[in-house]
Design goal:
Largest sheet: none
Order of helices and strands: HHHHHHHHHHHHHH
Oligomer: single chain
Number of helices: 14
Helix content: over 70%
Radius of gyration: 21 Å
Distance between the termini: 61 Å
């Protein structure tokens, strides 16, 4: 990675950084790391289509095309092409990065057991991995284990999504505590909160109906 260009990008001079990387690629089209840096920036800017196109073309130019596979797999994942993403990921040796991505893709494909198997073999468990593990447990219907995993992320480091999902995990056993987490989630990111509420409306309705019947 070109440190100078990375500093430019981090300072918010995104177009300058992208322009300089394009110049570097023009001068030396066989060097994989420039494509990797540029594709990462494009993905971060929400241009996964552009990033995928760049990497697909680069595969014919660089000396070791397999070096581009991980970023390309992430592009396909962002485009919603999970099968294509997985096909590439399966060729990549397992390290924490590729295991995380494989688990993510299997979860999207609805193969939660397989997702869990990959996620559980990640050595360095950071917050991103804890969140993913929580999502997998939740998809498997193990609410207790999901809550426990989400709560391993410290309070100050929890995002709107994690707080919302802790609320979902608590809904049935402690309605008042669940509401506190929903309020926190909404405060952090109102837009996400509304989307999530719609996404999980069936669960919320089921619990409400159950309470009304019991009440």
């Amino acid at each position: 990675m070109d440190r100078e260009i990375a500093n430019l990008y981090d300072a918010g001079k995104v177009q300058d950084a992208i322009h300089q990387l394009i110049e570097k690629i023009d001068k030396n089209p066989q060097k994989a790391e420039n494509y990797l840096q540029l594709s990462t920036y494009l993905m971060e800017q929400g241009s996964s289509d552009q990033a995928a196109k760049l990497l697909e073309e680069a595969k014919h130019l660089v000396k070791k095309p397999q070096e581009l596979d991980y970023n390309l797999a992430v592009c396909y994942y962002m485009q919603g092409d999970f099968d294509k993403s997985l096909a590439l990921l399966e060729k990549i040796p397992n390290d924490d990065m590729s295991l995380y991505q494989k688990a993510l893709v299997y979860l999207k494909l609805g193969q939660s057991q397989k997702a869990l198997a990959y996620a559980m073999t990640i050595k360095k468990i950071d917050n991103r991995t804890k969140e993913l593990l929580g999502d997998i447990w939740l998809s498997l219907g193990d609410v207790k284990q999901a809550e426990k995993t989400y709560r391993q992320i410290t309070e100050e480091e929890r995002n709107s999504k994690v707080n919302f999902l802790i609320g979902i995990c608590l809904l049935e056993k402690n309605r008042d505590e669940a509401e506190k987490f929903f309020t926190l989630s909404k405060k952090q990111d109102a837009k996400y909160f509304e989307q999530a509420k719609n996404q999980y409306s069936a669960i919320m309705k089921m619990i409400n109906d159950k309470e009304n019947r019991n009440g």
